[in-house]
Amino acid sequence: MEFSYKKAIILGLGLFTTGITWNLFVSYVPIFLSYYGIAFSIIGLIMTFDNFTAISIQPYIGTRSDKTWSHRFGRRMPYILIGIPIAAFFFALIPLFIPKDLINFGNYSISLNPDIVSFGFLITWIICFDIAMAIYRSPVTALIPDLIDNEHRSKANGVVQLMGGIGAIFAYTIGAILYSIHSEIPFLVTSIVMIIALCVLVIKIKEPEVSIVKSDNKSEINLINGFKEVFSKENRSLLYILLATFCWYFGYQAIATWFTTYGVRVLLIGEAVASSYLTLIVFPFILSTLPSGILGEKISRRKTIFIGLLLIISCFLIISIYSIIFIIPIDPILIPLFRFNPPNTLILLILISFPIIGVGWGFIEINAITIVWNMAGKEKQGTYTGIYYFFSQAAAIVGPPLIGLTFDLTKTQLPLFPISLIFFILALMSMFFVKNDEYTQK
């Protein structure tokens, strides 16, 4: 069947909404929480709430959507109709409950009279938003293998991820501008955009009735059975691609969550400027999405992922080496060359490395979930999508609080890149055990 870019773009609206919301969320919510003067490890723990809801809700919802059918809306759309409006509502509420009486301390601010009631509301809205996002994430992603043939899925996922990247660009550029006007505006505007995207999805996407799942008692789609398949001897490649997913998401989400704080406290730049630096990853990621899908179909998805991992590892290695030199001078003759104006040197390394990291992440992100889809039977796309998100979100649960604890113990944010480097190396090692990226279960 001929590939439809128009259909792929419409399908990408779902990821477009998550691209805006999550990037605004991880950029500014840690800053909101820091106004209350709480420890970085606690902020990191709070930032994992979405990941706890993801690993507990997304796999279940993915499996339920495999067994759902509404003649009016289809198999996935009922969950999308529930999740997006609720998420949009609570997302708009988040910045309404941050302290207003801020006192500046150098490059950061806190409230000297934090309101426990406001803090309670802020945490409540964060949790409600996280739950709503988890309800629709697996179904909106599972629409891709439902409606796109196997041979075009990498390309389709490239287009869909392109839409998610555009959402991230919106968050880091337009969102930063709106944030500089008032912290509440980007959250409200994003909520409106989410509702508009939902309307287009409902009008344009019609799920085929062939998607109806009919199963007997022996072969019933079941989340527990899905996890059993992951750990079975027959599916070692599936297990290792999921372990690799855990590792590279640990490394990537650490940067996404903590780089704004890193920028403020290490690079000595403002919040909005630090957040905007992440566009240096997102723009190349966007440009690489479609080529990544085409390359994955041409040379194999597995080889494309290897290229992406090597690109990212090389960049993180350079930044990490300088970070170590920055912390512990070793050679009194050579070190001054590296230690000349350290924040500016780090900024230069980051400016050079982030675009390469963006391309590498595109090579990984576009092709990894496609491998998982191709290992799923036709009736288990939602289940396997949910399991994929389980591993990726489990990494995001462990990562932020562990990184935050490291910051607290070392009294600096400099370990951020070395820790991310370690986990990308572990991902590379796991990928060596993925033997076949085209296997499809019968």
Describe the structure.
The structure is a single chain. With 442 residues, this protein is mostly helical. It has one domain: Growth Hormone, Chain: A (Up-down Bundle), CATH 1.20.1250.20. Helices cover 74% and strands 2% of the residues. It contains 17 helices and 2 strands. Strands 1-2 form a two-stranded antiparallel ribbon. A hairpin with a 2-residue loop joins strand 1 and strand 2. Helix 7 runs antiparallel to helix 11. The chain is globular. About 5% of the residues have low confidence.
Chart the SSEs and their pairings.
Layout (H helix, E strand, L loop, with lengths): L4 H30 L5 H7 L2 H18 L10 H17 L8 E4 L2 E4 L4 H32 L5 H20 L1 H8 L3 H20 L18 H8 L5 H30 L5 H7 L1 H21 L1 H27 L7 H5 L2 H33 L6 H30 L5 H16 L11
Helix pairs in contact: 1-5, 1-6, 1-8, 1-10, 2-16, 3-5, 3-16, 4-5, 4-8, 5-16, 6-7, 6-12, 6-15, 7-11, 10-11, 10-16, 10-17, 12-13, 12-15, 13-15, 13-17
